[in-house]
Every structure is written in structure tokens, then in C-alpha cells.
Amino acid sequence: MDKIYLYNTLIRKKELFIPIKKSKVSMYTCGPTVYWYQHIGNLRTMLLNDFLKRVLLHCGYKVKHVMNITDVDDKTIKASMNENISLKDLTTKYEEIFLIDLNSLNIITPNILVRATDSIKDMVKLIKTLQKKGYAYKTSDGIYFSILKFKNYGKLAILNKLKKTKARIISDNYDKSNVKDFALWKFYTENDGVVFWETEIGKGRPGWHIECSAMSMKYLGDNFDIHTGGTDLIFPHHTNEIAQSEATTNKKFVNYWIHGGFLTMKESKMSKSLGNIITLKELIQQTYSPMHFRYLCLQTHYRKALNFSWENLDAARSAHKKLERKIIQLKKEKHKGADKKKEYEKKFHEAIYDDLNFPRALQIIWKIIEDESFDSEKKLRFIEHLDSVLGLNIKEISEDNNIAIPPEVQKLIDSRERLRKAKLWAEADIIRERIKEFGYQIEDTPDGPQIEKLYRED
Ligand SMILES: [Zn+2]
Question: Which of 179, 257, 315, 341 registers the highest number of CB atoms within 10 A of its CB?
Fold first, then answer.
């Protein structure tokens, strides 16, 4: 097996990746909080997971990928009250939209998706262990983790070296008796409405951090290979996950921490609280395809900030369209030539196995395309093979793509049919709306669904 080097936030360096089990990789990702649409900054992090997973698979590993869905916290409870629907209805709706976003971006769905509300028992069990071991204490409003009790607190964030981050701990909104500690369990207050669990540790709901410790260890064990997330999660979220998990098990929690750079707009981080967000839905309404966004993300190394602008996205669209034209042309060509697969494969592997250098991998793809001495049929097959890592759906590109239904829309149509057969009308309607966002109208006829295009891309 080839050697893969990954940048590990724990040591702030690239290092050789050695999994715990010889050919299997265990990987956990902090998933979305499903209270609204995910913005394209969140989706960039989801693309990082996909790039990483595809590289591991290409290298020959089996990957067990677990992701959580945060379907209970302050934001979801507040949003369900604002939208005047139950927490379950709200989170189901945005979870569905999130999964469709993943599908549209050709992101491989995690092997295991776990909702926080389905794992309350596991969290309670973990909190009870932390209480028994003396790491957790009770106050009037909840159960807290005492970070002073955990010797290595803040190792991931290098807290003792970063004064700025230290200042942030002090200003964070934790229990007043010890400003540094964080909540494992929040006791019920009237603001929670009908959202609570009656448990052995009291009536209430879990804190966000305990969710990820409980769910990752439940499915991947006490010590697993890779944990991913956005850079903004290093502190406090991932720092607290390590503290909770290692305090419970006395074992190293995660071997490799991989963090993706921000997606910024006009130099500031994209976030709902700053009000500068763009969703995939908006990109599609502006007639971009999700693949154009995927291409844009492939062009920037995952650890670098990606400064999003419509001009950048236009450039990515042009490049992607040029790629489509070249592939269509290549599919018609029949000129004999050398098989240069070995030569290029080595370079391509060097790029992707060097901390997922996709910008370089894309350049190599273009070199292959432009190489006139490469046998055309062998070249096409080779590019299709490498595309299993890029995920650009090169196999599906054909001349009549403009009038035919794109694969992402076809996938939606298929899943809508499945939902209708199961009489899940409300869910089917959500997908119908989603199909519309792609510019297609769906009409149910006795002969099955008929599709009509609403507008053209150009
Ligand atoms: Zn998490």
C-alpha cells in the first residue's frame, strides 16, 4: 500500500498515516446542526471529508465513517419555536435537505449517521462515568466538566501557548462558579418548552460536546484513527471532546485530527451569526451546478482559507465546462498512442497522498488531457479511474447532458419515487421543491413522473 501523509493538528505537522488496524480506517466527522440550510462553508468541510475518504479508498483502505446529526441544542429548539413546528419536524426537514446537498455534491454518504436524540442513553452513561471518576460536578443549572481535573486539557488547541485562545475561555458563557468549565448536561428550563429527557442524572438535555464523544466511541471504539471538522471546532469543541473521552477511558481518543480551512467572503468567515451566508440552494438558483462548487473546492488546498466570490465561482464553472468539452471530444477520438498511465499515476498519487494536494492533482489531470501522445481510449479510461478520487462524475459527461437530466436530478427523481411508494408524501414534496431548485418541474402522470426543464444553464 502507498504511504499517505496527513497534517495532524495534534502535532501541527504532516506525518505518515498508520491506521490502528492494518487495512481499515475508522473516521468520525462532526456533522451539521440541523436548524436551517447548511451554508457553503459547512459544505466545504463536508467536501474535505469526501476528498479524504476517497483518497483512503483509492489507496486500498476500507473506511468506516461515522457522522453525527445535532438535532437538539439551543439553536434547534429556538428555530422550532420560531417556525412554530415540533423539534422533530424541524430537524427532519433540515436533515433531509442536508443529505440532498451531500448527494448533489457527489459526497459519499457516511456509513453511519447518528442523531443526537437517538443517543441520549449513551451520553447519560458517559456523564455518569465522569461523575464517578470525579471529573464532573453538579450545579443548579447542570452538570459540568471540571477542566482543572483533566491534566492535559487544551493540548490540541495548544492553549498554554495561545494567549488569545485563553482569553476566549474566560469570556465563554459557562457556569459562573468556574468560568472555564463546560456543560455536559443542561437541566430543564422553561425556555426548552417540551424538549427534555427524564434521566437518572436529571431532567434536561445534553451539551453539544458530550454528543460527539458518546457517538464516536460508541461506533468506533475508545481509540480510533481520524477525526475531522472545521478549524473553528479545534477549540472548544474538539478540545472538550478529548477531555471527556480521555478522562473516561484513560486512553488516547483520536490519533489524527484533520481540520479544514474556513470559507471566507470578503475576508470574513462565513457564518450564520455574521449574516454573510450563501447556501447551495442559492448557487443553484444562480444557475450554478453543485459540481461547479465542488470544482472550486478542489482548486484550493483544504487547509487554506477559500475566499469565496462569484468571480471565483465563475472561473471554476468555466474550467469545469472546458473539462466537459474536452471529455466529450476525447470520447469521440480514436487515435492510437502510448500508454502513459504509469508515469502519470505516480505523479497523481504523489499529489493526493501528500496531505490531499488536490490543486496539484487537478493540474495533473489537465496535463493528461492535453497530452497528445497518450492513446485516446486508454487516456479516457485512465481519467475515469482517477475521477473516483476527484468525484467529478466524468463517466456521466456526454454531449446531450444539456438536454438530458443531470445525474444529480435523476437521483432526486428516483428517491422521490421511492418516498411516494412508501406513501411519505411530505418528504416527497420536499424533494419536489429541491428538483425545482435545479430548474426542473416534475409532473405526476399515469405513465409516471414527467420532467420539464424550467431554465437553461447558459
Ligand atoms: Zn463534534
Answer: 257
